[in-house]
C-alpha cells in the first residue's frame, strides 16, 4: 500500500489522494472482508489515502500480522514539485499498524543522484515521517489528501488547474 506518497510521500514523498476524505480515528477499523478498498484500509490505520497512487488494483492483508501487499497494473513514477522523484514497483509490501508502516518494499525516492528505498512511514499527529534508513523527512499530513497519478503526480491535466505544493518540515537534500 504505500504507501510514502512517498513521499511522494515523497513516500517520503510517497504517497497522496484523489478524494478529500476525513482522517480515520486513532484506532484501526475492523478490516475483515473484501469490501474495503486499499485506500480505506490505509485510513483504518490512521493514514491518508495519498500514500498510494491512483490505480491500486487489489491488495492482500493478513490482519493478524499486519503484513500487506498492494498491486498496481505496472510500475509507476512521478515527480512532486520538481523536488522529488518517486517510483512504485507493481507490488508494494510491508507491515501496517496504527500510525506506522514498516519493512516497506516497492517504493523509492530519488535523493540527489541516488534512488533510496522508503522503508518506514510513521504518523506523528499531523506529520508523516518518511525514512530511507539513513535519513528521514517529515511532511504535513495534508500533503497526502490526494492520490498522485502515475506519470504526472499531482500536476495532471485533469486537476482543473489546481496545483498542490508539497510542504516539507525537514527535508532530504533536493535534486
From TrEMBL:
Q: Does the keyword Cell membrane apply?
A: no
Source organism superkingdom: Eukaryota
Specify the signal sequence span.
Answer: 1-26
Q: Which Gene3D superfamilies match?
A: At5g01610-like
Question: Do the record's keywords include Signal?
Answer: yes
Keywords, alphabetical: Signal
Q: What InterPro entries does its record include?
A: At5g01610-like (IPR036758), DUF538 (IPR007493)
Q: What is this protein called?
A: DUF538 domain-containing protein
What organism does the UniProt record list as the source? Gossypium mustelinum
Higher taxonomy: Eukaryota, Viridiplantae, Streptophyta, Embryophyta, Tracheophyta
